[in-house]
Amino acid sequence: METSRKIHAITGQLALKRCRIESLCLNGNQIGVRGALALAQGLCLNRSVKILDLSRNRLGPKGCHLLCEALREPTSAIKSLDLSYNEIQNLGARSLSELLPSSAQSRLRELRLQGNKISGDGLDILFKALCSANLKILDLSQNIIQISILHQFRQFLATNTCLSALSFSGVHFFNERSWKAIC
Prior knowledge:
Layout: H1 3-14, E1 23-25, H2 32-45, E2 51-53, H3 60-71, E3 80-82, H4 89-103, E4 110-112, H5 120-130, E5 137-139, H6 150-159, E6 165-167, H7 176-182
Parallel strand pairs: 1-2, 2-3, 3-4, 4-5, 5-6
């Protein structure tokens, strides 16, 4: 069965009230924006999925935006979201930053954004939104961390009391001067 038909079949199941799926891993299925749209429609009605792994699916900024719209719904039960390696870039980070303040009343506790080509402005707005989020785990590995956003990052660390795990492995431009700016 082709990927698009598989996603529509899964989406149909997610929309059913009797759906009890708690963990949905679609890692590496290359669902793209069309698949993200179909999945978002199913997630709007779903109350059972708590763990959603959409890493390596070529979602791009538009697919990220569609998913964030769905996750803003009061029915969303998502606690863990993995969007790693989807090239969501700064526009996708902006969509996530609009989702995160609403996640203060939601259940989102883990966010993985590894290798998404997020840089300066995208990270700046993301860190501002994260100040009021209840995340416990954040992975920003292999993105482009620049000195210009470290002030906002330091403010995020000072105000977020829930974070227990942070990953910055493989970031570009983290040097001794960067660490001094944080500490």
